[in-house]
């Protein structure tokens, strides 16, 4: 086993990652607590758009802690929504990440072997979009499952992405505001670049 594989198996990739997320509304207090508890740097963009870009940067363990907190918060939101609903089965937490298309082949693996291994190991569902996102060279990767499964899945995906850097220049996907009458709506809500390695949408 190589040194990198040993670090991965112990859950401690010795690198710094940057993740950028899209989220709706103002969650300043939530983000402040995540910043304090995770040890990662978390910044929220300014602007008049109803969506904000949240940038998370730090050592991988800090990133994974922040990611775990985000997934837990989503699950709490789902539980709260269910108390006023007739739905009896709890839907899984779903997050959408964005990766350079050149890295998606490594994530899928030969004959789908790698993505199958990640699904079986973590218990999370992982889907890689077949098409590039508009005006970019990136693809959306959707992860769903329990907060624990999602966090483990992100660990595996980070490992794959770090072992297979993107090839060539990456054109990041950027959601665009489209004017419709007096309203402005955002084009397909899957996005957000996460450095050259990964991105995720918080919605």
Oligomeric grouping of the chains: single chain
> Class, according to the CATH hierarchy?
Alpha Beta
- Average pLDDT score: 75
Largest sheet descriptor: 4 strands, antiparallel
Please bin the fraction of helical residues.
25-40%
Strand content: 25-35%
Low-confidence sequence ranges:
1-12, 182-203
> Strand pairing plus helix content: what structural class?
alpha+beta
Instruction: Calculate Rg over CA atoms.
Output: 17 Å
CATH topology: TATA-Binding Protein
- Give the SSE string: HEHEEHEHHEEHEEE
The global form is globular
Cα(first) to Cα(last) distance is: 39 Å
What is the CATH architecture descriptor?
A: 2-Layer Sandwich
Give the strand order of the largest sheet, numbering strands 1, 2, ... along the chain. Answer: 5-6-4-9
How many DSSP E strands?
Answer: 9
Helices, by number, come to 6
Integer tally of domains: 1
Spell out the key features of this protein.
single chain; 203 residues; alpha+beta; TATA-Binding Protein; three-stranded antiparallel beta sheet; 6 helices; 37% helix; disordered N terminus; disordered C terminus; K Homology domain-containing protein; KH_dom_type_1; KH_dom; KH_dom_type_1_sf; RNA binding
């Amino acid at each position: 086993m190589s040194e990198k594989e040993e670090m991965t198996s112990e859950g401690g990739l010795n690198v710094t990652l940057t993740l950028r997320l899209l989220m709706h509304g103002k969650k300043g207090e939530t983000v402040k607590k995540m910043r304090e508890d995770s040890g990662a740097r978390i910044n929220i963009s300014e602007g008049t758009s109803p969506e904000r870009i949240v940038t998370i940067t730090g050592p991988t363990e800090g990133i994974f802690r922040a990611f775990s907190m985000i997934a837990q918060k989503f699950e709490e939101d789902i539980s709260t929504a269910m108390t006023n609903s007739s739905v009896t089965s709890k839907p899984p937490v779903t997050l959408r990440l964005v990766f350079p298309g050149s890295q998606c082949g490594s994530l899928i693996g030969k004959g789908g072997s790698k993505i199958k291994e990640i699904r079986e190991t973590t218990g999370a569902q992982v889907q890689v979009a077949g098409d590039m996102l508009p005006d970019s060279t990136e693809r959306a990767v959707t992860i769903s499952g329990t907060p624990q499964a999602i966090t483990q899945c992100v660990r595996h995906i980070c490992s794959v992405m770090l072992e297979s850097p993107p090839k060539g220049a990456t054109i990041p996907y950027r959601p665009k505001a489209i004017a419709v009458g007096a309203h402005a709506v955002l084009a397909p809500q899957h996005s957000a670049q996460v450095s050259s390695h990964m991105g995720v949408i918080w919605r």
